């Protein structure tokens, strides 16, 4: 079963308002085995809304409209549906009475334009809205010779979410054939999208019943696997089989197969090894510490960190010799290694991490351009230092430096 979600509202076509309702609807629909194939945003023009509805009904089994059910002149969803389907709107006495009662209970007079919210599409079932004045509407229709479901929901999340959960999902479970969706997310750090796809495309290409999506994020690739079957166990089995084959190909490049964040995996390994961690950060300004402490229970393995932005604090808090900084520069392989050793000793931690670099946009040189970062890891027995040249703005460089550090830690602990 394929669904389309249409978000109605000119404000959603500006930089100031974002559609978040569709994320909730997608999750809800996936839970009953429905795949969302399209999402559309359309402004408050009746002709445009009607056109979007016609297109959606032509390509999907279910269409959900969000918004445009209010009392004002620009709330045109009801009229647009009537125009698209060639049906009438009629004023529902029960809905109108409920509106008057709602305002009376608040000891307020109802504005005349609220009566528009009692206009119900011919053949529609009213979906009650105890959290607002706009009722939803449920239409089971034939369009183009095929059965379709068209659902009108209010736009405010506090009204839409309970209506979807309490009114729509029970109806969908009754109306639709049994269907279940299984999914897995595999996460890979510090590899390129094209490199990953080149290695796994021959594998997922043999699984035509599993939808594979590759998403690129800064310092990370996500491989989303989704399968829809009549029985959940069958769908999950297909997803797990594909995930297993991808894991065999990518080996330790995959750091998570259940959606965990990289910092969660690092802390898991630290606790499993009975190890502790301390960090000394220069160009990342505490971002690595922030990511680690974002995880509940991180204090069991993370001792703490120091933001050693100035050369003086590199010496005072991480015991980096002044002459080392003078000889090699604050942004250097030697200083990164010294930071890792120094903070580990100061915190009495098992492992120390040192990061120093040039996040930009200024400060770069021909020898060490913006994006140059050195990351050191030391455990008292051995040390590892890498030099990376990251591209992007200041925030991206800082984030990639922490991502590289976490992946180095993961691989060391493995």
Question: How would you sum up this structure, described in words?
Answer:
Helix content is 40%, strand content 26%. It has three domains: 2-175, Molybdenum Cofactor Biosythetic Enzyme, Chain A, CATH 3.40.980.10; 180-256, Alpha-Beta Plaits, CATH 3.30.70; 262-413, Maf protein (Alpha-Beta Complex). The mean pLDDT is 95. A six-stranded mixed beta sheet has the order 2-1-3-8-7-6, with helices on both faces. The chain has a five-stranded mixed beta sheet with strand order 14-13-15-16-17, sandwiched between helices. The protein has a four-stranded antiparallel beta sheet with strand order 10-11-9-12. By secondary structure, it is an alpha/beta fold. A hairpin with a 2-residue loop joins strand 7 (136-143) and strand 8 (146-153). The chain has helices at 21-30, 46-59, 77-85, 93-105, 157-175, 193-204, 232-250, 262-273, 287-293, 311-318, 322-328, 333-347, 394-413, and strands at residues 2-8, 35-42, 62-66, 89-91, 119-121, 125-127, 136-143, 146-153, 180-189, 210-217, 220-229, 254-256, 277-281, 302-307, 351-357, 372-378, 383-389. Helix 1 (21-30) packs parallel to helix 5 (157-175) and helix 2 crosses helix 3 (77-85). It contains 13 helices and 17 strands.
